[in-house]
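A reminder from the course coordinator: this example appears on the midterm review sheet, so study it carefully.

Given structure:
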């Protein structure tokens, strides 16, 4: 019996190998790999997601759609795409990275070609900076060798050691190849709260004029953002070679969220859970949050961050 079952197993394995050799695409169909079946940019999808799911971020929405579309439609980019997203906590920086990933990789954030680093989790000890540098460079090189269309997200960039930021520089520069590897099709996304306060000041001043928030333009926040990021020794990005050499393609400001956006987040969360829309509940959840400045109570202190748990409480 043992001989027969071993024979059957060997036979099946041989048949499977033969089958995969004849129909290799079947293998790629089931197993994620660096091919168009798994990686292809959906501009319409990204546009629709940004319009319907990202609330209160008209400036970020526009820049991201243009930047990602331009890059993904260019067959011969001269450097990887580098986006630096800035803003107050809970305003959608991680969320937007997810929307980008969803519209490039079939498996979205679960794709093995999307890599997330968080300063405090992956690089916690300043004393081990040299080890982190080697590991990080090794990781980036290995993954881009495996798939040119890799995406690297660095969260809490403002808490990252400037030396470590500098170690990324060769990969995001204009080199055609480094040790035989081209990094030009990769995407790097940096997330940070640096500049969040100055973006908030500008948005508050604008709010006080009584104008429509949508009229706030990139040029209105650009100056305060760049001053806060580049001239602030605590911003992490301060005086790094990424800034000095102009290697960041787009600085993207995220505006602080107002009460009405928090209501939208609560409604979206209900929909995501398959619950019937309940504006009263959404208002109740939104009014539980804290708003600032104290005098006007305009912006949510935590953005949309605690909506999920607040909703759990009421359900
Ligand atoms: N502008 C927004 N539109 C829609 N949903 C949002 C928005 N901002 C935040 N959210 C919701 O709140 C959750 C938390 O937001 P997210 O993690 O993107 O914030 P963040 O800006 O990255 O914050 P932090 O700086 O603290 O990391 C998201 O998963 C999303 O569900």
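Designed residues:
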């Amino acid at each position: 019996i043992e001989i027969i079952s071993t024979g059957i197993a060997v036979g099946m394995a041989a048949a499977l190998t033969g089958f995969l050799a004849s129909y290799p695409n079947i293998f790629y169909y089931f197993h994620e790999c660096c091919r168009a079946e798994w990686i292809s940019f959906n501009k319409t999808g990204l546009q629709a997601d940004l319009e319907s799911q990202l609330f209160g971020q008209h400036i970020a929405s526009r820049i991201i759609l243009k930047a990602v579309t331009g890059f993904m439609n260019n067959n011969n980019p001269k450097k990887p795409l580098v986006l630096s997203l800035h803003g107050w906590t809970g305003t959608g920086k991680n969320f937007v990275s997810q929307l980008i990933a969803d519209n490039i990789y079939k498996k979205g954030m679960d794709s093995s070609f999307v890599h997330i680093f968080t300063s405090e989790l992956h690089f916690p000890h300043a004393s081990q900076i040299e080890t982190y540098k080697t590991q990080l460079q090794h990781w980036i090189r290995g993954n881009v060798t495996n798939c040119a269309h890799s995406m690297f997200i660095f969260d809490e960039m403002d808490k990252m050691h400037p030396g470590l930021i500098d170690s990324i520089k060769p990969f995001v520069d204009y080199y055609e190849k480094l040790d035989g590897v081209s990094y030009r099709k990769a995407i790097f996304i940096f997330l940070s709260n640096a500049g969040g306060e100055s973006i908030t000041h500008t948005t508050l001043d604008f709010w006080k004029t009584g104008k429509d928030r949508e009229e706030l333009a990139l040029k209105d926040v650009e100056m305060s953002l760049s001053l806060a990021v580049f001239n602030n020794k605590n911003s992490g990005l301060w005086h790094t070679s990424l800034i000095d050499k102009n290697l960041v393609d787009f600085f993207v400001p995220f505006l602080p969220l107002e009460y009405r956006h928090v209501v939208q987040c609560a409604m979206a969360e209900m929909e995501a859970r398959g619950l019937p829309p309940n504006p009263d509940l959404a208002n109740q959840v939104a009014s539980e949050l804290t708003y600032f400045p104290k005098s006007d109570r305009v912006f949510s202190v935590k953005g949309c961050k605690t909506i999920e748990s607040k909703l759990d409480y009421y359900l």
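Residues 53-57, 89-95, 191, 193, 257, 265, 303-305 surround adenosine-5'-triphosphate (CB under 6 Å). The beta strands are 81-87, 114-118, 151-155, 187-192, 250-254, 291-292, 299-300.
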